[in-house]
Amino acid sequence: MFNSLYFEYPYVALALVAFILCELFCKMKLPSFYFPHAAQFMNSTISASKFLFLLKWLGIVLMVVALMSPVKDEAYELEPKKGHELAIIIDASQSMQARGFDDNNPGISRFDIVKAIVSDFIKKRVTDNIGLVVFGEYSFIASPLTYDENILSRIVSQLQIGMAGKYTALYESLAQGVNLLKMSESKSKVAILLTDGFSTQGVDKIPLDVALDMAKKEGVKVYPVGIGMPHEYNRNVLMKIAKETGGVAFGASSANELKAVYDKIDELEKVEIKNETFTYMNYYYIYPLFVAFILLMTYVYLRNKRGVN
Predict the structure, then answer these.
(1) Which positions, given as ranges, span the membrane (predicted)?
(2) Tally of CA atoms within 13 A in the half-sphere of 259 that contains its CB
(3) Whole-angstrom Cα distance, residue 10 to residue 284?
(4) 3-state secondary structure of 69
(5) For position 309, what pLDDT does the model report?
(6) Most buried pick, 163, 187, 241, 280, via CB within 10 A?
(7) CB 27: neighbour CB atoms within 10 A?
């Protein structure tokens, strides 16, 4: 309890000197009376005088201690919430049902592997405000921006292949991701665009250039990720998206490579978090002040009752 306890006004201790000087030189002037045989009363009053003397000076010392304001600092840290505004864009088209992407579990679909890896990624980004876009023939916002990684992980676990149609509206999904981040005033906006296919002509209603202009205008850095064999996705388009938005394009032909890609993105977009620290001052003057008050009141009561100086 007394660790790091200090006095806010230590110089008030000099007041004790004033009390001592006053005790020595400021004697109370009272009218004097002569009593014969006064010595017989002296022995019975000496012990009472010592007790009252102790009460008085202990009360004075504690009162001065209270005026010195004993205080203790306790530091508190606020949980930081300053990360990126991040849009995760996931391809849920029919092609994502392909299997054999994970050598350890060849029977599982690409989409299920993506969901597991994305969920792990979300859990790492506790300071990011993350939203989720899912696309197929059309795209939709599955989750607005939120810091709640539990809700996001639950939504990701409920995603299904084909829930947005079986084709690939790749550029429309990028525009939807930009729209998700558009209302944010953050200076750091990032989108991770994952796909295993080419944009489907006649389905994708937004041209690539328009989607790129939107991303550049809103300052969104895009990390395109192509999964599957290199011929299964449009590598040139993904590289163009990355180049024009300041991101990096990745390719992953297996679950391990995809996990490494998300680890790399996590590393590239690390945020230096500085915790905000506040100091709360606990004052303890009330304790010596209360005891001093009791002691001095007792002193006054006994002094008046016994008539002892």
Answers:
(1) 12-30, 51-71, 283-302
(2) 11
(3) 14
(4) coil
(5) 46
(6) 241
(7) 9
Across 4-23, b (16+ Cβ under 10 Å) vs e yields eeeeeeeeeeeeeeebeeee
Residues 108-136: tens digit of each pLDDT? 999 999 999 999 999 988 888 899 999 99
Residue 3 has pLDDT above 80, yes or no: no
User: What pLDDT digit, counting tens, does each position of 161-205 carry?
Assistant: 999 999 999 999 999 999 999 877 777 899 999 999 899 988 999
- Convert the pLDDT of each residue in 11-53 to its tens digit: 988 888 888 888 888 766 655 555 555 555 555 555 667 888 8
Q: Which residues have CB under 8 Å from 198's CB, separation 6+? A: 168, 170, 233, 234, 237
β-pair type (70-78, 5-7): antiparallel
Strand-pairing partners, residue 102, are none
Task: State the burial class of residue 296 (Cβ atoms within 10 Å of its Cβ: 0-12, 13-18, 19+).
Answer: middle
Q: CA-CA distance, 223 to 228, in Å (whole number)?
A: 16
Among residues 94, 234, 238, the alpha carbon closest in space to that of 164 is found at 94
Nearest to 177 by CA among 250, 96, 264, 89: 89
Residue 50 dihedral angles phi and psi, to the nearest 5°: -65, -40
